[in-house]
Amino acid sequence: MNKRQTEILKYLKKQKFFRTSDLAKKFNYSESTIRRDLAVLENLHLIKRVSGGAIVIDDDFIENPTELKYFVNSFEKNKIADLALDYIADYHSIFLDSSSTCQYLGHLLQEKKHLTIFTTNLSTADLIDKGNISHSLYMIGGQVSNGKVSGSITEKFMRDIEVDIAFISCKGVSSDYTISEVLETEALFKKIVRQHAKKVILVADHSKINRSYLFKSLSLSDIDCFITDKQLPQDFVTYLEENNIDYLF
Predict the structure, then answer these.
(1) Which stretches make up the HTH deoR-type domain (predicted)?
(2) Quick check: 115 and 93 in contact, CB under 8 A?
(3) Angle between the 100-108 and 74-85 helix axes, to the nearest 10 degrees?
(4) What is the DSSP letter of 209?
(5) Which 3 state secondary structure label does DSSP give 63?
């Protein structure tokens, strides 16, 4: 590891996350040089390269995999959150699931007024609360694990409300247009969310497309809108059009 790479690592330890383009400006080197330096640091298991930049692998990230997940595909999640925000009007009631994509959307809600917000993600609730001016915020109860809540108490809470819009993500969207999850509890909960939301918007980046997992939650035909970051395969586009599902990227 050379002197420049050492300096980059020191800087990253302070910032936790930084974009490749910003590192290039900071150290006055080309982005290609910085990318090579980041590759060296990643091979030494000191950082992890993510979309557009890098994060430091320290004890905090190792102990909190949810925090690491937040930075993966960050550019794509920001783009999706920006598009999703346009669906929210002042005084809306909304649900944000436990996904990192919905956490990015949570950052933007201070641009709206008098929302009623429900979430199952502790970090999302915390960041909304810190920037809250006029919103009513509800942290849905349940068993806490990895920064999110789930279980029978969570399900009962969701059955007792009806929101204007529910924003959900997923583990995968398969080639047969099925939305799926790794955990049975996640799949079941999203079925309940569908029943208690006037509109359901799926927010999922391109890495989720053509992926299938054990537990089916919904079909794409069950949602009202699909927001992603890249053009979907044509068969997906045709399916969405035939089922009158909004589609943005």
Answers:
(1) 1-56
(2) yes
(3) 50
(4) B
(5) helix
Please provide the distance, in angstroms rounded to a whole number, between the alpha carbons at the two ends of the chain. 40
Task: Give the single-character DSSP code of 183.
Answer: S
User: pLDDT by residue (tens digit) across 69-89?
Assistant: 666 677 899 999 999 999 999
* Percentage of residues of the chain with pLDDT beyond 90: 67
Read off the tokens for 39. 């590759």
To the nearest 10°, report the CA torsion of 130, 132, 138, 144. -20
State the SS3 of 73-125.
CHHHHHHHHHHHHCCCCCCCEEEECCCHHHHHHHHHHHHCCCCEEEECEHHHH
Is 200:222 a contact under the CB 8 Å cutoff? yes
Domains and CATH numbers, the chain: 3-61 (1.10.10.10), 74-247 (3.40.50.1360)
